[in-house]
Design goal:
Blueprint (H helix, E strand, L loop, with lengths): L3 H6 L5 H5 L2 H4 L8 H5 L19 H4 L5 E5 L2 H14 L9 H10 L7 H9 L7 E5 L3 E2 L5 H4 L1 H9 L3 E2 L12 H15 L4 H14 L5 H11 L6 H10 L2 H6 L35 H15 L12
Parallel strand pairs: 1-2, 3-4
Length: 310
């Protein structure tokens, strides 16, 4: 959001993301220096936070501020947080992965339990002031028989995936086919020797492919923010907000932060950025414990998660 929002709000001008550190162009609400930075920003101002809804300041509730709430698979959040705790010198050592899972589920991490965070914002009575965005919000595929089989449709329904309708005989309309070919070529060149290596290489190569769904998400956010950028501007923003681009941008990758606060030698701030990285970290036993705890916490909620917790 620290990359996307300035570009959406100023018509795609790259100057802010190329010249201003992200913590100054889109400051954190939880920072002590917020008051000083906020006064230097021109309207409409963009800010970010990890705050649960219950900690939002009174000024927020009295305002007309809009919220874009970004959800992510909790298993990927846990993995990302585990590595962040390793590199952030101002945080406690995460311990072993087993120990960190326990801390995460108990809420003994910054900003508390993930389930409480989601429940708080999902139940917030903000009307049209809030937009929920997820990585896994929409699944798009063609009418290949394996996609339209009864078992496949039933699985997608149970897992709450939204699927776009396609005309019959339509595999050529699906741009994902080009990505599958690109992925297969890249993976074959690295010659994985076993299943574990194959999975790791697939995820690494997938992360290198520019995100093709980002323009659609940008259009959705633009509408929500009352902006109407041209298609060229949308594509320009998307290109400059890919994980690969941000990772090389010194104004965005936190490389300007002194090592005494964030040590990239322990783990880079922008590590992988690929959904599903949890699969190479969780054991079957850890996964069972994690999913059971999350389900128990959310069992009485009226909303459903757009993730497969298994």
């Amino acid at each position: 959001m620290q990359e996307i929002l300035p570009l959406l709000l100023n018509g795609g001008d790259l100057t802010p993301i190329q010249t201003i550190p992200n913590w100054d162009r889109v400051p954190w609400l939880e920072e002590k220096r917020l008051a000083v930075i906020a006064d230097t920003l021109t309207a409409p101002r963009a800010m970010v936070t990890h705050f649960p809804f219950r900690l939002m300041p009174p000024s927020f509730h009295a305002s007309k501020a809009k919220v874009i709430y970004v959800m992510r698979n909790p298993k990927d959040i846990l993995v990302s947080s585990f590595y962040f705790h390793q590199m952030a010198e101002f945080l406690d050592d995460p311990g072993t992965f087993d120990e960190f899972i326990e801390k995460f589920l108990d809420g003994n991490v910054m900003f508390g339990k993930w389930t409480d965070h989601v429940k708080g914002w999902r139940s917030a009575e903000l009307g049209d002031r809030i937009l929920f965005i997820t990585y896994e919000e929409m699944c798009q595929h063609d009418n290949d028989p394996k996609h339209t089989a009864r078992a496949t449709k039933e699985w997608l329904r149970k897992k709450h995936f939204k699927v776009l309708e396609w005309p019959s005989q339509s595999p050529g309309l699906n741009p994902i086919e080009n990505l599958w070919r690109e992925l297969k070529v890249c993976v074959a060149q690295r010659q994985p020797q076993n299943i574990t290596a194959l999975e790791e290489i697939c995820m690494e190569e997938w992360a290198k492919i520019p995100a093709t769904d980002l323009p659609a998400a940008l259009r959705q956010m633009s509408d929500f923010l009352g902006r109407n950028p041209s298609e060229g501007t949308i594509q320009k923003i998307a290109q400059n907000c890919t994980f690969k681009t941000m990772k090389t941008n010194r104004m965005s990758n936190f490389s300007l932060v002194p090592k005494k606060y964030m040590n990239p030698e322990k783990s880079p701030f922008l590590r992988k950025g690929v959904p599903g990285d949890w699969k190479i970290h969780f054991s079957s036993e850890q996964l069972a414990i994690f999913t059971s705890a999350i389900r128990k916490e959310l069992q009485s909620e009226s909303f459903t998660l757009p993730y497969n917790l298994d």
